[in-house]
Amino acid sequence: MAGWEAAPAKVNLYLHVTGRRADGYHLLDSLVAFAGAGDRLRLEPAGALSLALEGSEGATLAAEPDNLVLRAARLLAEAAGIPASGRLRLEKNLPVASGIGGGSADAAAALRLLDRAWGLGTAPEALAALAARLGADVPVCLECRATRMQGVGEILSAAPAMPECGILLANPRLPLPTPAVFRARRGDFTPPAVLPSGWADAAAMARSLAACRNDLEEAAISLCPPVAEVLAALAALPGCLLARMSGSGATCFALFPDAGSAESAAAILPEAWWRWGGGFTNPPLPAYSALAGGA
Ligand SMILES: C[C@](O)(CO)[C@H](O)COP(=O)(O)OP(=O)(O)OC[C@H]1O[C@@H](n2ccc(N)nc2=O)[C@H](O)[C@@H]1O
Ligand SMILES: Nc1ncnc2c1ncn2[C@@H]1O[C@H](COP(=O)(O)OP(=O)(O)OP(=O)(O)O)[C@@H](O)[C@H]1O
């Protein structure tokens, strides 16, 4: 039986809203990276499909029937024409509805884990199509490595070569629903970013990202003013190279030259906040990658 499957936190290093589709969904351009922080998912042998929640944030999310992990399991089983089975255990460490894609990362981890455990060998493109039906962020979370994301989340391409870099995540422990933030967004669209093929070091990457923005930051602050306090606190940390909000918030991130300095800086932040400091995870292209030119 498979061990723990990692569901790392998604970080939008920049997020440009480039347009809007006729159905109301927003067109995006984003560089998405994955932090060492995350949830974990495990499957144990059992008859009918079930989900048990544990971990520091587990109590904030009831094991409701529409949990994204269960929806992913049922969707995969249905596509394969098999009954969904097994006892899933979700260790929930990421705050819920916080802009770091916890639910999306869990759903993607469920697709990867169950595709293996059930011996399905689903084609990468087919798995990515199932992921897109579960949420805009699920395809990029399926990749689980630094990736450029466009369209409404379904167009994925290789990210610039990422340097060694530390990342700190901080959340004021206030949930912020994604649809409300998109609804509150005002202003023009932003063109896609122009990115180099790679960065020599974290400082060069931060300089380049500083020319980009998170187009949802203003809307998130209007709905949740403490986001501005978190951003100010991060920007003031010694060694901080860049402070910005991730996704639709309220989690904000700061970049540091290395994982050690991000970890030390996290300890300075208010204890009432959820905070994590460390490095990025950037594994080699996995077998299930649907990235253009991928494995
Ligand atoms: C903001 C991001 O986190 C950036 O990575 C994602 O685009 C959101 O991804 P997600 O949470 O998986 O979003 P979904 O669950 O698919 O959508 C939630 C709601 O957000 C809005 N939404 C989402 C994605 C998108 N490209 N445009 C939108 O307008 C829609 O109102 C949608 O009903
Ligand atoms: N396994 C799960 N983990 C977290 N949320 C879940 C899960 N399953 C269902 N949900 C629901 O999905 C909603 C969004 O949760 P999530 O934590 O993914 O938001 P988010 O971090 O803002 O995501 P994103 O950055 O992709 O917008 C929650 O309000 C919750 O009710």
UniProtKB/TrEMBL annotation:
The keyword Nucleotide-binding applies. ATP binds at P95, V96, A97, S98, G99, I100, G101, G102, G103, S104, A105. The keyword Calcium does not apply. Residues 209-273 form the GHMP kinase C-terminal domain. Keywords: ATP-binding, Isoprene biosynthesis, Kinase, Nucleotide-binding, Transferase. It catalyses: 4-CDP-2-C-methyl-D-erythritol + ATP = 4-CDP-2-C-methyl-D-erythritol 2-phosphate + ADP + H(+). InterPro entries: GHMP_kinase_C_dom, GHMP_kinase_C_sf, GHMP_kinase_N_dom, IspE, Ribosomal_Su5_D2-typ_SF, Ribsml_uS5_D2-typ_fold_subgr. Residues 67-142 form the GHMP kinase N-terminal domain. It is an enzyme of class 2 (transferase). GO terms for molecular function: 4-(cytidine 5'-diphospho)-2-C-methyl-D-erythritol kinase activity. The active site is at K10, D137. SUPFAM superfamilies: GHMP Kinase, C-terminal domain, Ribosomal protein S5 domain 2-like. Its EC number is 2.7.1.148. HAMAP family: IspE. Belongs to the GHMP kinase family. IspE subfamily. Catalyzes the phosphorylation of the position 2 hydroxy group of 4-diphosphocytidyl-2C-methyl-D-erythritol. This is 4-diphosphocytidyl-2-C-methyl-D-erythritol kinase. It comes from Pseudoroseomonas ludipueritiae.
